[in-house]
Q: What sequence folds into this?
């Protein structure tokens, strides 16, 4: 379970988040919605342990995979080299072919990451969900820059993760077709 109580985050003298509370049980998910600049990424980074809140209490599992806006891939490496790197960190090298296949990356596996379109780069990043399965997934705008077919594959993967008892929290500034609760953050700047 993830529990957030009275979360506040300030950057310099600006309040980014204030009095934010929510809970997400195992086997379920949450979609954090709002316009750009409302704090969606900040919430996910705090949950991932990448930012420290100014105030508030957070209880979360340790087994977390965070996939942010930046795809966290080495630009000079090929798709295959990048996926092997992430699989090696998780000790799941045998899952690389499955990740390539699931996200239809076989035809691109020898290309350097920097040569791919934004949509293909995002698919490579999302393949980490298969390579590094964790109890909790924190996904920042996972449906951005992907086509409808990839969105269906991602949706199925997310639902499967929660059906297996995991937690998925994702952000989106667009409607998302998932059977999850929704947390709307205030208007942007």
A:
């Amino acid at each position: 379970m993830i529990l957030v109580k009275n979360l506040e985050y300030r950057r310099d003298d600006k309040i980014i988040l204030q009095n934010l509370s929510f809970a997400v049980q195992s086997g379920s998910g949450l979609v954090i919605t709002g316009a750009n600049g409302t704090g969606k990424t900040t919430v996910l980074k705090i949950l991932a342990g990448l930012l420290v809140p100014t105030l508030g209490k957070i209880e979360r599992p340790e087994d977390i995979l965070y996939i942010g806006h930046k795809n966290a891939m080495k630009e000079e490496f090929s798709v295959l080299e990048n996926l092997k790197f992430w699989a090696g960190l998780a000790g799941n090298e045998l899952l690389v072919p499955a990740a390539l296949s699931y996200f239809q990356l076989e035809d691109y596996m020898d290309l350097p990451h920097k040569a791919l379109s934004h949509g293909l780069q995002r698919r490579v990043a999302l393949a980490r969900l298969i390579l590094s399965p964790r109890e909790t997934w924190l996904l920042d705008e996972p449906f951005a820059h992907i086509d409808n077919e990839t969105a269906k594959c991602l949706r199925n993967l997310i639902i499967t993760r929660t059906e297996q008892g995991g937690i998925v929290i994702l952000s989106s500034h667009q409607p998302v077709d998932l059977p999850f609760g929704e947390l709307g953050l205030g208007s942007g700047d």
